[in-house]
Records
---
Amino acid sequence: MLSEPVSAAALYPPTVPPSARALPLWLTLLRFTRNPLRSLPRAVYETDIVAYGRKRPLVAWVTGSDLIEQVLVKRTDIFAKTRLDRRVLKPLIGTGLLTAQGDHWRWQRRIASPLFRPNDALAYVPVMAQAGHEQIARWRAKGAAHVAPIEIDMTETTFAVIARTILAGIDESEAGEIQRTGYRFIRPIMWSVASALMLTPEHWWYPGKAQMMRAAVENRAVVQRLLDKRRAAGIEGDDLVARMLQARHPDTGAPMSDEELIDNLSTFLLAGHETTAKALTWTLYLLARSPQWQERVRAEVQSVTGGCAVTAGHIAHLTVTQRVLKESMRLYPPVPAMTRVNLEATELGGIALPEPALIVIPVFAVHRHKATWEDPERFDPDRFLPEREANLKRTQFMPFGAGPRVCIGAAFAMTEATVILATLLQSVRFSWDGTHKPEPISRVTLHPKGGMPLKVEMLQGAHPGMVKEALN
């Protein structure tokens, strides 16, 4: 049995202060482009639904668990994925799994689903642990103690995992260019979202548009090169790329076109590592701010693994580690918002919605809702003790979404985050500088403003040779 952590002052990590009320449209859009979370009124943290608009509400923020259940689970025939998602992301990921609809979405999901079964994710644990140890080696090469750019480092680590597992055979040497072009696309994306919300013609200009379009073209060209290299090397195997190259449409018998292949490769290269990287980034920040929890997780990892590399058999026993990850994703959900649109006039929570209205589910606010969480701004992993987690509604805590379009990689991502976090804590202590308080900023995923600089310190007694031997 692990000892209970020593008492310490409660941690209330950085958040985004809401506005006292719904703002005028011009001010809402201004705040939205800087950080969409700053445009949320206080009411979304306190009530079930808030409609924007006087006589004809065009936007409804939905944060009540029962209403979210209606939108994402029970009435999906009425509440569909929005044109906003497709318009904003189409230049980069086309109509891949994230943005496809109807039969096209179902076909693509059927191809990918077998690779993401929970038990199958455990087969990738050695690769996940190896990526974590490679990151430790990079830190070690820079000295026993130094300040590291954690957000960048976690992105590199999780990209290595996706390239060696689900997308096995992808040339990792192209990783830097994919990440750079992806970042250039994402950086001004809220102007694109604001333009879509205003229903402006797609050809109209907005700040950063030219940069986004160039980045998307360059990114897809890199993915095309990766696809060509893999095709030339042979399409045998059971990874996602092989599955897509071998797939035939159930109705027409036609293979996926290069455009469809690039759409899906781009989707998994973006979503397959970016969200897990953000979850790990925020988790390491919280542990740096809460040393007693960091030591408690480290003690659990040592007790479970005996100092050896993390294996599949360890995952179920790393319960404190997973509670910390879940609480981190509650406070800082990797995808802070989802949108839907109603396909016909309807009613939701006593509010009549015309067709179409934009339904926004601000997951960031759902996870901090005052009616469903006790002391919601506090970092408290014990919220996810088994007896307490059992009482949570499925739409109260949803870092991976809910309903038919729940994230296909949820089990994979949770396994990966557990393995990498446990691996890092075996060899490294993370410390806060006492000053940097990163504002969470929504840019499709949840970024820390100013990055995430943390001090990394190599622990004595953690020997690279022992780890290498354990992995062999």
Note: Residues 69 and 395 are 6 Å apart (CA to CA).
---
Amino acid sequence: MDNYVITIARGFGSGGLEIAKKLSEKLGIPWYERQILKMASEKSGIAEGVFDEVDEKLRRKLITRLMNAIPN
């Protein structure tokens, strides 16, 4: 497989950043954290803050949907 993407969803205190770094080193592939928003901004000409805002809104929307799906 020549091209692949590994996504590690992480929350505060989950250790996801450290896992991503170690996995990247072990597999010999690059890893991106916030750099991906900067790259998208530069390529599209859209301000980086816009990407950040959309990311946060989608995250809040997903959390709300998940919370509403949990039976009382």
Note: The mean pLDDT is 81.
